[in-house]
Amino acid sequence: MRWFNIRGWSDVTIATPYLWLVIFFLIPFLIVVAMSFATRTTTSPPFSFGVTDNYLDFRNYARLFQDDLYIRAFLTSIKNAAMATFVCLLVGYPMALGLTRVSKSARNILLMLVILPFWTSFLLRVYAWIGLMGTNSWFNKLLTSAYNTLVPQAWELNSIHLMNTNFAVVLVTVYSYLPFMILPLYANLEKLDMTLNEAAMDLGSRPFRVFLDVTLPLSVPGIIAGGLLVFIPACGELVIPGLVGNPSNPMIGRVISDEFASARDWPMASAVAVALLILMVGPMMLYTYYDAKAQEKKAMEP
Amino acid sequence: MTETATSQKTAASSAPFIRIENVSKSFGSFKAVDSVSLAIKKGEIFALLGGSGCGKTTLLRMLAGFETPTTGKIFIDGQDMTNIPAYERPVNMMFQSYALFPHMSVEKNIAYGLKHEKMTDAQRKDRVREMLDLVQLSQFGHRKPHQISGGQRQRVALARALARAPKLLLLDEPLAALDKKLREHTQFELMNIQHKTGVTFVVVTHDQEEAMILSDRMAVMDKGQVKQVGAPTEVYEYPNSKFVAGFIGSINFAEGKVAAVNGDMAEIDLPSMGGRFTACSIPGLEAGKDITLAIRPEKIAISRENPGTKNAVQGVVNDLGYLGKDSLYKVQLPSGMIVSVNLVNARRVGEYDRLAVWEDKVWLSFEPGSPILLTN
Fold first, then answer.
1. How far, in whole angstroms, is CA A73 from its chain's centroid?
2. CB distance from B180 to chain A under 8 Å?
3. Cα separations (Å) of B103 from A207, B144, B347?
4. Strands B16-27, B372-374: parallel, antiparallel or unpaired by DSSP?
5. Where are the beta strands (DSSP E) in chain B?
6. Whole-angstrom distance, CA of residue B66 vs CA of residue B63
7. In this predicted structure, what is the pLDDT of residue A299?
8. Nearest CA in chain B to A208
9. Does the structural domain B14-246 have CATH classification 3.40.309.10?
10. Best label site of A154, A183, A260, A276, fewest CB within 10 Å?
11. Whether B290 contacts B373, CB under 8 Å
12. What would the pLDDT profile of A61-111 be if each residue is shown by its tens digit?
């Protein structure tokens, strides 16, 4: 019996990530799902099953629709995440396209610069934004004086209100997640055949028309990948809205955290978490579908 | 009336339709195209032939408008096109990779160039139909490029490039991606379509056979320069340099000196072939001049007996290759030189009734008109 068996090792290799996912994702998630059907009690841990007549308690899910806190939080999350994704796309697309058009050596340097912010602590960077947006910062003063010179005297302001707004959340989210938009877009655009652009130009299209007819439709998989990579984590974002957001208009991550920690209502927190996951799985499946379709298309080409 | 039309056509086609005047293109310190001047007639198939890196593709891209010449000018139908962008030129290109838009159907691909033309939707539809018929793909209009075969893709690329009725069609290695059988068929189809449409074709190819079959005239390029321009027969039978002679087909070279010139004939001493040979003279030849004699393998006769003519030399069969329609003999002369000789297998050969096999002594001979004399 040999210790090195190709088949055996390949099975182990394939099984490892699945095992990892089962232990660290599936089982905890099932615990959360189970908890969402429990009832809040004053015991430790603070929930039990079978307190009501039914073994499963659906009241947590009913509350999701009854208390408008949850629906508002979901809507705020989706709105902020969607806006951040859209702005990331607007800013990231030209950057990704630019990356494919520069020389190989410049490209490596620019790619490095895209990833560079990750080398500093995420929290530090958010605090830097807090410093910039505060009413007494040079940045805010600069913006205020620029604004005041442009508007009539009656509209003049002492400072621009930036901190603790949804605008601040979107701004910092865009800043933090931009690389996640640029990198998949770049990977997609970089693979596009430049002769297609030449062919379109040869057939009478001006450069912008070429972009609309050829580059944009062929980069849809990249847009979807980048969009989901930004949208999904931005939806559940906890730190950014916690630090720069409006506390009276919380996002869903904050609600989950509050239910778990302050309210000690674990079943309710679990129900919100499950609802958020269902909301996220939708776009994820859409992405997988598009990705599989693209792969299939590629496989059919010789 | 027919006569007038014909004479008019001849008059039109004799004037150069495309003029490339002293065009050079440098990429940094590398000169891809070096002072090329060419005149291409209306309605002809003109081939740019050369090895990789000879500048033929760069020249084609300058005709298309993807590159601007560093110096020199390009005229198409009398108009200066040097600084006109690709999307405003009456020129279309069939790309080597075909460059079909993968997200559009065959019909949409062909219609793509028409959306900038002033025509009604019905006219556009008719034109697409017409093009699909021309390349015999009427059944495939709704397919996507990845759903058709390589040969069909090539025809879609051709139809798309012809749809706008360009004044000039550029073809970049049009047959390189096809297998041999399909290539032979497509060559004739391309010529057929060119005759039907009357569009001027400029074909870039590294394949000399392709260039010879397709083209009315061709330019042989090397290191960014045009070495020779002429009809395929002219370039093959009367190459003007060792490079062209060696690039097109195979050939035997022998260095020597002119011994004497007697009217039309020249006596040439060729030490490498072991003696004095007679060849038809060329202008400017005089005794004592260094010369290269070049002769193609199929123009040398091979026999067991001494033919008893001039220009005969004996050697030993060193190697022998049977290629089906002909056999290739490598004959070693007493001087050590190895001469390639092609012999057409006019009748069926068995293993034992060959003219000669390895180590056999044979006589080689050629007519005085057969060799090419090169002074450079």
1. 16
2. no
3. 19, 7, 54
4. unpaired
5. 16-27, 30-41, 45-49, 71-76, 79-80, 91-94, 168-172, 200-205, 217-222, 225-230, 252-262, 265-270, 275-280, 290-295, 301-303, 312-322, 326-332, 338-344, 361-365, 372-374
6. 8
7. 62
8. B87
9. no
10. A154
11. no
12. 999 999 899 999 999 999 999 999 999 999 999 999 999 999 999 999 999
Cα separation, B34 vs A266, whole angstroms: 79
Q: What pLDDT, on the 0 to 100 scale, is given for residue B240?
A: 92
The size of the A-B interface in CB pairs under 8 A is 63
A200–B116 C-beta distance less than 8 A: no
How far is residue B200's CA from residue B188's CA, in Å, rounded to a whole number? Answer: 16
- Pairing between β-strand B312-322 and β-strand B361-365 as defined by DSSP bridges: antiparallel
Percentage of chain A beyond pLDDT 70 is 97
Question: pTM of this prediction?
Answer: 0.82
The residues on A that touch B, with CB distances below 8 Å, are 193, 195-196, 198-206, 213-214, 217-218, 297, 300-302
> Which domains, and CATH codes, for chain A?
67-264 (1.10.3720.10)
CA separation for the pair B47, B208 (Å, rounded) = 10
Contact B87 A193 (CB under 8 A): no
Structure-block tokens of residue A54 = 């039914």
What does A38-105 look like in DSSP terms, one character per residue?
SEE-SSSSSEESSSSSSSS--HHHHHHHHSHHHHHHHHHHHHHHHHHHHHHHHHHHHHHHHHHHS-HH
B250-374: CATH topology:
OB fold (Dihydrolipoamide Acetyltransferase, E2P) (2.40.50)
The domains of chain B are located at 14-246, 250-374
**B56-93 exposure pattern, b = at least 16 Cβ within 10 A, e = fewer:** bbbbbbbbbbbbebeebebbbeeeebbebebbebebbb
Q: Is there a contact between B164 and A302 if contact means CB atoms under 8 Å apart?
A: no
Q: Say if strands B79-80 and B71-76 run parallel, antiparallel, or are unpaired.
A: antiparallel
| Partners of residue B143 in chain A, C-beta under 8 Å | none
Which of B92, B103, B147 is facing A203, going by the closest CB pair? B92
Mutate which of A197, A203, A295 to disrupt the B interface (most B C-beta within 10 Å)? Answer: A203
Position A233, amino acid: P
B296 has pLDDT over 50 = yes
Is residue B87 less than 8 Å (CB to CB) from chain A?
yes
